[in-house]
Please model this.
Amino acid sequence: MRFSKSFIHILLLWSLLIGAKGHVGQSTNIKNKELKYLDLKFKKEISDKKLSIQKRYLLCILAARELKELNFKEKSNEYYRMAKDFKVEENKKEIIDALNEKIKTPGTSIFYFEVNISQLVKNKNYEKAILSLNPENFIHPENEKFKILYDLLNVRIRKRSVKKLYCYESLQRNPEDYQYSNLLCDLLESYLHDGKINSENYKVIEEYFFKHDLKERYLLQLAKELKTAL
Model:
């Protein structure tokens, strides 16, 4: 039996459409499973009664940020609303902005509220430091230098629960650049993979800060604390 070229063409298009629909369905299922897993993980962390109200509030905010980054906006807003209900003395501009649909064009500032970020880190006020930072604005070139600080704080607070390092993209793009952000990013990547801080890598970073970038040396304190605390 012979078929016309147009009939064969229709059959091919039909098979491609069926395949595409199947692929879309699989992708949706994967996304749904990812969302369910993250939701259960975050709620388990936040419901820990041994944690202070302040720490539970912080974890709500960090969960909301991660879910927003993964394009789970509705679920992200659920965690922002949860955080809003906590009675804590914190600047809640981030929550207000996130839940206000009228705000279409957020500013370019890396900070949600005014702080002396280096002083907060020196004083070991890590929770307020990370709450002040707006990771959505890492897309602006002038804010890229804050990525490694955010990652250091995030890993210090959440340990190996952290699944994404903002600094990793820059490290992959310029792996040979001998600068503190790459060195620290490699240290964090190693920790998330192996569960420990590599002592040799830490020594290299320690030497780097004593020879270069004295202004940013406060980050060494945070790296040192990661080494002893994790």
Q: What stands out?
A: The longest helix spans residues 5-46. The radius of gyration is 22 Å. The CA atoms of residues 12 and 221 lie 62 Å apart.
